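Standup notes
- DV: blocked on the single-chain target, sequence here:
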Amino acid sequence: MRRKIRVFGLLVLLVLIGVPLAGFWVSSWLHRPLPMEEPVVVTVERGASFNGMLADLRGRGLLGEPGEARLRRWGARLYSAFTDLDGRLHVGEYELAPGDSLLTLLEKIDRGEVLQRSVTLVEGWNFREWRALLASKDGIEHTLGELSGEQIMARLGLPDSHPEGWFAPETYFYTRGTSDLELLRRALERQRRLLDDAWLSRDEDLPYDSPYQALIMASIIEKETAVPDERGRIAGVFINRLRRGMRLQTDPTVIYGMGEAYDGNIRRSDLRRATPYNTYVISGLPPTPIAMPGRDSILAAVRPAPTEDLFFVARGDGSHKFSKTLAEHQRAVREFQLQRRADYRSRPEPSR
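- DV (later): unblocked, structure below
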């Protein structure tokens, strides 16, 4: 009888010692680096189960050889038993780097630490270019389809509005499944705040009387130069011309009016062709913005630099030569336009 008691006690002791040791040994596989040599993205789909996620990892070879995979799965189930992760998987993408363990992934899912993607909407681009960029990005839910610009604006709460100019150039972060419309909504809200704040701080006696006209001017400034120190001066030139009743005569408005017919060159016939945007033909501002202006161009439009200049011409290095008189301007045109350098460009490329 005593012998049976001793044997039973030994078995109990082995269980009490062995189970924790076995649990510790299994859970240790959670801490071991996963077999990968480059970053990978693990996606938890809506409606996915914990076991289904583990099966997907095993199928991709991320849990190692069959024996290792089994131990990692057991360790993951122990983690889930203590944290109830199985019942609250956060949907999204999770990025793992070489050296990360299965525990790293489980803790990210537990915290909802989903992968943040980004898209940069570039200053000076037009709405058509922005739509193409959004359509090319992975992870975005594409909902715009064949909608017109006006239909998109209606969905954003601005019916009967032209979309050009209304979206703030910036880098926007998003998670997988974010819609293109939601990104545009965020860009629209930011641009409206920027424009409203700028309008409240505007100079007196500007030759336009609404924030929208300031936005139109800002878009022209944005297309004319990407040199920070020039924006205010270029705004001053355009405002001087408006005050004197002179036409703006700015090439970017001609290009915008040409639409997809623009092939990289502006011909004399293009300058004479009447479009609502051709400021060689029309007086005053065009009817809408011609691009997406950034904050600095908006500020330049409402707080232009004081200047007596009425003209400017591209030097060919991205900067401009400013002139007060037509004679000075004509000399600058002969110097910088009629004898163009081989690497001539009217403005520097914006950073992306």
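- Follow-up: Residues 3-19, 348-352 have pLDDT under 50 and may be disordered.
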